Amino acid sequence: MRQIESYQHKKILVLGLAKSGVTAATLLHKLGAFVTVNDKKPLSENPEAQGLLEQGIKVICGEHPIELLDEGFELIVKNPGIPYYNPMIEGALEKGIPVITEVELAYEISEAPFIAITGTNGKTTTTTLVFEMLKAGKKEPLIAGNIGTVASGVAEEATQDNMIVIELSSFQLMGIRSFNPKIAIITNLYDAHLDYHGSRREYINAKANITKNQTELEYLIINADQEETMEIARQSKASIIPFSTKQELTEGAFLKDGWIMFNREKVMKINEIALPGVHNLENILSSMAAAKLSGVENSSIQEVLRTFTGVRHRLQYVADVNGRRVYNDSKATNSLATINALAAFEAPIILLAGGLDRGNEFDELLPYLKNVKSLVTFGQTAPKIERVGAQAGIKIINRVDNVEKAVPEAYRYSEPGDIILLSPACASWDQYKSFEVRGDIFIEAVHKLK
C-alpha cells in the first residue's frame, strides 16, 4: 500500500455502510483522517457500525440528519447505491463538499495498476475471463469491485507485482476524480439504471468516466459495433483498441474465418471455446485483448477459453435433471441479457422470468421467444411478461409466487431434451436482496428436484 498523507487530519464523512463503507472508513482512519460514519440502519441492528465504534470511529446511525453537513466536512465518501438526488448528497454538493466513491481511495493507495471493466452487459464474465487469463499467464492478478472484494481492501494488500482486475458500475464511476486504469474496457452500452441516473445520457457519461483520466500511455478497449461506445473512444486520450464480432478490423480483436484474432494474429479457433452463447464472443474478444496487452501468451489464453464455462448466475449450467439441462441466468436483470440467453440455445426452452418493475414493457423480447415452449412468471412484472409471451404464441403460461415455486412448475411442463432457463429480464429487489440470492434459491430448488 502506498503511504499517502493527503487524508491526514481531514474531516471526512462516510455515508452508507455495507462492505465498501466499512472498508473505506477503516482505511481513512488508518490514514489519519477524522472519520464520521452515517448509516440509516439503527445501531442496535448494525454490527458493522458497532465494529467501527470499537475502533474509535464516530458513528451516527438510524437516519441521515441533514444538519450533519454543517460540521465542516472536507470530503464525503458515499456508498455507490446512494443516488445523487439524495438530500445529503445534494446538500453536500451545494456546499461545495467533494463527493467520491471508495474506488477513488483504492486507486490512490494502490501500488498495483488497474484493469477496469464496465458496460451494461458482460462485465462480470469479462472481468472473470481477464482475471483467469492473467492468472494462467502468471501475472499475479487480484480481483476486486462488484465481483470480488472491496477495491480499497484489495489495494491495501496489492504490490507492484500484482495487477488489480476490477468490475465497475456506473454508480461507482460517477464518484472518481483521479482514478486512471492502465487498461479500461467498455463492453457495450444499453438502457440500464435510468431510475438512478435520470437519463441515458447521464448513464453513458458515467460509464465514460472510466477513461476520463487516461492518456496515450493507457489503453481503452472499446466495442467497435456501437456508435455510443465509439463516441467515447473519439473523446478519449487513451490508445484505442477496438473489438468487434461483426467487422474485420485492421487492428484490435475480431473474428475471421472461424478464429478469434488480435492485431491480425490467429489466437484460437472459435469452435474450441467452451463458453456458450454468441454474445459471449464480445466478452471473449475484449478480455483476450486485455490479456494480450498485459503480455499473456496465446497458450494461456487458449487454456482458459477451453475450460471456462461461465460465472455463477450468468448463464451458469446447474444440472441435468432427467434429460433436462438447467441454467441459472439470474444476473440477467434487463431484457438484453435475457435476449442473449435465449439466443444461446437451439433446444426448446422453458423460461422463468419476472421481477422488479422499472416501467418497461418487454416488447423487445418478442422476436426472441420463438423457441420458448412454456413460460413461468413471478414478481411485479409477471403480467407484462405474460402479455408479451401470449403475443409470441406461447401456449403454456403460468404465474407462481416466487422462483422457488417456479422450478417444479417449469419441470412439470418440460420434456427430456428441453432447456429450463432462469433468465428474469428484471432486477430482483421486489422479492430478493440481490440477483445472487435469487440465483442461489433457484439452484437449491433445482437440486431438490434431483
Q: How would you characterize the overall build of this protein?
A:
This is UDP-N-acetylmuramoylalanine--D-glutamate ligase. Belongs to the MurCDEF family. There is one protein chain. This protein is of the alpha/beta class and 450 residues long. The chain has 3 domains: 90 residues, 3-Layer(aba) Sandwich (Rossmann fold); 205 residues, Mur-like, catalytic domain (UDP-N-acetylmuramoyl-L-alanine:D-glutamate ligase, 3-Layer(aba) Sandwich), CATH 3.40.1190.10; 134 residues, Alpha-Beta Complex (Protein-Tyrosine Phosphatase, Chain A). Helices cover 34% and strands 21% of the residues. It has 16 helices and 20 strands. The protein has a 9-stranded mixed sheet, with helices on both faces. Strand 2, helix 2 and strand 3 form a beta-alpha-beta unit. Helix 15 packs across helix 16. It is globular, with a radius of gyration of 23 Å.
What is the terminal separation in angstroms? Answer: 48 Å
**Order of strands across the widest beta sheet?**
7-8-6-9-10-11-12-13-14
- Structural class designation: alpha/beta
Helix content: 25-40%
Strand count, sense and barrel status of the largest sheet are: 9 strands, mixed
Strand content: 15-25%
